[in-house]
Write a structure and sequence with these properties.
Largest sheet: 7 strands, mixed
Structural class: mainly beta
Order of helices and strands: EEEEEEEEEHEE
Distance between the termini: 40 Å
Helix content: under 10%
Number of helices: 1
Oligomer: single chain
Number of strands: 11
Strand content: over 45%
Length: 123
């Protein structure tokens, strides 16, 4: 079992930056692939980014490539999402996700979810 708590959301102007954090507690953090998903108003939840157990591999949705960077600090049990060049279409609730299986996180999401943090990008 792992508990996930996101932070760092807020209101930002288009072109600005935010860094989201997700703190994990419970079983060994390094056992989990970590990911970020988002749900925009009126839309389905979608994959944003994932990072492998040790952080050596990362995966990004095409819509955020070159703008968002996922990273993790296993010593701090935390995963981050650095978001640059934000656009109004990035407005969404962002969710942290964890699973021991990479394919689960890359697809529809793994077993464990945070409650989300709202990011609003104004034009």
């Amino acid at each position: 079992q792992v508990q996930l708590v996101e932070s760092g959301g807020g209101l930002v102007q288009a072109g600005g930056s935010l860094r989201l954090s997700c703190a994990a507690s419970g079983r060994t953090f390094s056992s989990y692939v970590m990911g970020w998903f988002r749900r925009a108003p009126g839309k389905e939840r979608e994959f944003v980014a994932a990072i492998s157990w040790g952080g050596g591999s990362t995966y990004n949705a095409d819509s955020v490539k070159g703008r968002f960077t996922i990273s993790r600090d296993n010593a701090k049990n935390t995963v981050y999402l650095q978001m640059n060049s934000l656009k109004p279409e990035d407005t969404a609730v962002y969710y942290c996700n964890a699973d021991v299986r990479l394919l689960s996180v890359q697809a529809t999401g793994g077993d464990y979810w945070g409650k989300g943090t709202l990011v609003t990008v104004s034009s």
